[in-house]
Design a protein that fits this description.
The structure is a homodimer of 392-residue chains.
Chain A lengths: L3 H16 L15 H11 L7 H14 L3 E5 L2 H11 L7 E5 L4 H9 L3 E5 L10 H11 E4 L2 E4 L6 E4 L11 H10 L3 E5 L7 E2 L2 E2 L6 E5 L12 E5 L2 H10 L24 H12 L1 H19 L5 E3 L6 E2 L5 E5 L7 H10 L26 H9 E4 L11
Parallel strand pairs in A: 2-3, 2-6, 6-7, 7-10
Antiparallel strand pairs in A: 1-11, 4-5, 8-9, 8-13, 10-11, 12-14, 14-15
Helix pairs in contact in A: 1-10, 1-11, 2-9, 3-9, 4-5
Amino acid sequence: MKDPAKVVNDVLSSLLSVLGEKPAALHEPCFAGNEWSYIKECLDSNFVSSVGNFVNRFENDLAAYTGARYAVAVVNGTAALHVALNLAKVQAQDEVLLPALTFVATANAVSYCGAVPHFVDSEFGTLGIDVPRLRDYLTTITELHDGVCVNKQTGRVIRALLPMHTFGHLGDIDGLLALANDFKLALIEDAAEALGSTYCGRHAGTFGQSGTLSFNGNKTITTGGGGAILTNDPELASKAKHITTTAKLPHAWEYRHDQIAYNYRMPNLNAALGCAQLEQLDGFLASKRALHKAYAQAFEDVSGVELFVEPPGGKSNYWLQALVLQPKWASSRDVILAATNSLGLMTRPVWTLMQDMPHFACCPRMELSGALALSERIINIPSSAGLLREAL
Amino acid sequence: MKDPAKVVNDVLSSLLSVLGEKPAALHEPCFAGNEWSYIKECLDSNFVSSVGNFVNRFENDLAAYTGARYAVAVVNGTAALHVALNLAKVQAQDEVLLPALTFVATANAVSYCGAVPHFVDSEFGTLGIDVPRLRDYLTTITELHDGVCVNKQTGRVIRALLPMHTFGHLGDIDGLLALANDFKLALIEDAAEALGSTYCGRHAGTFGQSGTLSFNGNKTITTGGGGAILTNDPELASKAKHITTTAKLPHAWEYRHDQIAYNYRMPNLNAALGCAQLEQLDGFLASKRALHKAYAQAFEDVSGVELFVEPPGGKSNYWLQALVLQPKWASSRDVILAATNSLGLMTRPVWTLMQDMPHFACCPRMELSGALALSERIINIPSSAGLLREAL
């Protein structure tokens, strides 16, 4: 059997062979296009806030890029999720199904609606929801009442299914669509990590009722802080715009609003950055794919650890590159994290599972052995588009 | 008696005498300082998002400027209100007292907590809460139970008092503090409009448990979108920082969070703009005061309408200049609005009162004759700091 110290050394030397000796962030942005001139144009126009040409342009550019009929730009991915749940009429005391293996925003957004996150398992093939096991679980614990899915154990309505495309990889989309259809759930894709990822040629976030994107600083493109809701439904798009702009009714001077709503509109300043970033997205994706190839080569002969490869049928943006340790080396995870981070090579494990946080400890859940195993064995490694810039 | 058409003409010609024939926005920003170089520095540093030097600097600059011990920068003024209510432990089914005469964000933020806005009246001297009438009202409808203020009519706890400093004018601060103390209410100042305003030399937003600011594009300074929470309490400041950054626990690589929280942190890009704007605030305030003086002169001899003047004891930022029509000319308000806007001179009435919107129609309220009279008689006129730039 391999020496644990050898696994650590192998991972380190493979990383160094790709990245060189200089420090590397986990994911940092790259500003090499029109960022500068668009922001200057924005300042010169005096429109930096919730009204302005760049917000509309960014929304149009996003729709064109993703193929969604509509995109609505908001302050961040969390706000986008909150709005998407609102569009699906998720209300207090409803339940929403989402992976235990996700960033906390997915579950927080459900809480903002007064609804209850219901955690489901993930699997190794896609890092996404384990659809066959979820189907068995729902068959056991739910029944349809007048076309509404009711959790027999809690008595609550399960309103929506909210998969998250982990590290940009699209999960079992066909399985999720069938599940949503059979159990009468609104399908909302948390595509925060998946801008540029497709499945069967179709962009992430366009399969369900709506999808959400994030443009946080650590994402494939950034607007400083930002997010968007994608949908093909004109009524939902119009509602999304309305409730993200305080539900103000159009009028030359009156300030009248017709429902409780949010100040979630993306500022024009941030959209200007977004327009410039989006122009470079294809280049970023090519760089990230090249980085994946370099890692694949470097880790080819390292036993005990595998570089995660996009699932069949999809094309991933490879937002975060991930190593998956073999079970017997899971206990070396923290040693590898410590060794790499101490050298300035930023690495991290996946997020703490949702049910392991105090505020979600009492939420309903299915058996989560897949998510647990993944959380013990995943290590994310430096993934910025700019890392191999010189090499391209 | 004066001819209604004469009032309209007098207002128009007075406005034109100050503003000239060119169009004038109600309030637009002025970028004449280091905006450009700070944003360039921000892009060059690659830190545009939720981490970065400008966010910390903007918070320090705000604290220094306002005299608050702590400032926490967030995505907008609405988020700041939501957080401030959270700090005051406002919870579902509590009531919060706030003026019916305010922008909808004040009431929306209360709803985000699941709490119920309770609308109170405003008065002509300060455009703020009518403190003596509110005291009488609370004496009648509330009683203290174990140091908690209970609304005898609804059975709900009244947790907080949330005055809003209309157009930047500080209301009866001493009266509000006494009221909060006597009725055991947390005092939160919605100072969204009041950056640069003081009362007895002390800055708006620093009198109660916490105060909130807004840096929306139409405010005295702007960050594109942005806001801040001010407080003198170290524990509240630390909690504000924690819940605006997803309640993540500090760790080199772990993602663990300990409560339901928000993605409300101001991006570094927006803070860079804010740092440059704050450097110019004193100049903006001087320009706005000069504009007030020019309007005062122009409207001095116009009968039927008065230019609102800062209440005694305070120094206002004169965020929005306001005309108050005499009661008999209230019916001319919309004619004046139409005539001025059609000339490109942007004017507007005050916001639709909160209880007149469908989603707040059933909220508890005191008798609101002051707010109603104000809403019929106020007209805001062009107020940008840049309007008299040539003249200074």
